[in-house]
Amino acid sequence: MNGVPVLSAPLTLDTLNAMDRSAFVDALGETFEHAPWVAESAWLERPFASAEALHAAMIGVVRRSPQTTQIAFLCGHPELAGREAQARSLTNDSQHEQASAGLGSMTQEEMARMAHLNGIYRDRHGIPFIIAALRHTKAQIFDEMQRRIDRDTADEFVEAMTQIAHITRLRVRALLSVN
């Protein structure tokens, strides 16, 4: 389940703005992977004038959090084609995003390479490799992993947060059917 409740009508900003905290968190809680606290905190900033304003409020919650909370948040993200993907326990959003980049249909060799790069990256930076998979092909993801492994960890932390912003902006826009 991706945290989006079954609604009788399309989800709109007006609907979101009128929701109580519990319904709001149910609707948006998994937009930020395994972090319903983001939606819960953003609820206080209603009403939202646009999908962009909603997203800005949500990403702002993460960015204003203490660094230890941000690191824990990043560590809550699944590795690309990793253990959660193999166990088919990804959120619906992550499953769709990884599949769109071709990560759901990799060869044994590609799986081994991905696992190797994921391990090196996590050992080096202390967080999983994060990229907006919807915006990349499998080949581009491998290239980015290779390029980013040797970067400074502080730079990778900033890059991971930038990628989270891309991922979640796309998710918010999809949830509200904004093109």
UniProtKB/TrEMBL annotation:
One of its GO terms (biological process) is purine nucleobase metabolic process. Residues 17-172 form the Oxo-4-hydroxy-4-carboxy-5-ureidoimidazoline decarboxylase domain. Its EC number is 4.1.1.97. GO terms for molecular function: 2-oxo-4-hydroxy-4-carboxy-5-ureidoimidazoline decarboxylase activity. Keywords: Decarboxylase, Lyase, Purine metabolism. Transmembrane segments: none annotated. The keyword Lyase applies. It is an enzyme of class 4 (lyase). Pathway: Purine metabolism; urate degradation; (S)-allantoin from urate: step 3/3. PANTHER family: 2-OXO-4-HYDROXY-4-CARBOXY-5-UREIDOIMIDAZOLINE DECARBOXYLASE-RELATED. This is 2-oxo-4-hydroxy-4-carboxy-5-ureidoimidazoline decarboxylase.
